[in-house]
């Protein structure tokens, strides 16, 4: 059990280093208040506290997959690299191309307009879509 705890802590520390590097590369200070503010502007779920994101920066915790995806999109990095430190081969990119190919021109334009919105408006549109999708 001690070995598993050590491995997780080592993984969390390495994740922390990649997160800090990504924030700096993207032009953000690697500080908990900055991470909390920027993350919560983009995340559709329950907002996180400064203490929660501080654990990511200190290497004490690794975010869940949905949160990791938000971080990767915000920082414009590969989510697999952010989590594990290695890049995936073309399989994910090929899957993304197939998904994109199924869209109509109107759907593609709507997605492009959505992606051009500032983070706070993207969050609002996402909440509307989720509300409409509920039965």
From TrEMBL:
<dbReference type="GO" id="GO:0003677">
    <property type="term" value="F:DNA binding"/>
</dbReference>
<protein>
    <recommendedName>
        <fullName>HTH cro/C1-type domain-containing protein</fullName>
    </recommendedName>
</protein>
<dbReference type="InterPro" id="IPR001387">
    <property type="entry name" value="Cro/C1-type_HTH"/>
</dbReference>
<feature type="domain" description="HTH cro/C1-type">
    <location>
        <begin position="48"/>
        <end position="82"/>
    </location>
</feature>
<dbReference type="InterPro" id="IPR010982">
    <property type="entry name" value="Lambda_DNA-bd_dom_sf"/>
</dbReference>
């Amino acid at each position: 059990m001690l070995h598993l705890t050590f491995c997780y802590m080592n993984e969390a520390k390495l994740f922390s280093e990649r997160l800090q590097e990504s924030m700096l590369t993207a032009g953000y200070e690697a500080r908990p208040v900055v991470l909390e503010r920027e993350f919560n502007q983009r995340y559709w779920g329950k907002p996180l506290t400064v203490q929660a994101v501080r654990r990511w920066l200190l290497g004490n915790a690794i975010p869940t997959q949905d949160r990791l995806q938000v971080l990767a999109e915000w920082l414009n990095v590969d989510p697999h690299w952010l989590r594990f430190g290695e890049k995936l081969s073309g399989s994910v990119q090929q899957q993304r191309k197939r998904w994109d190919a199924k869209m109509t021109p109107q759907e593609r334009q709507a997605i492009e307009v959505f992606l051009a919105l500032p983070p706070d408006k993207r969050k609002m549109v996402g909440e509307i879509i989720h509300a409409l999708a509920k039965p």
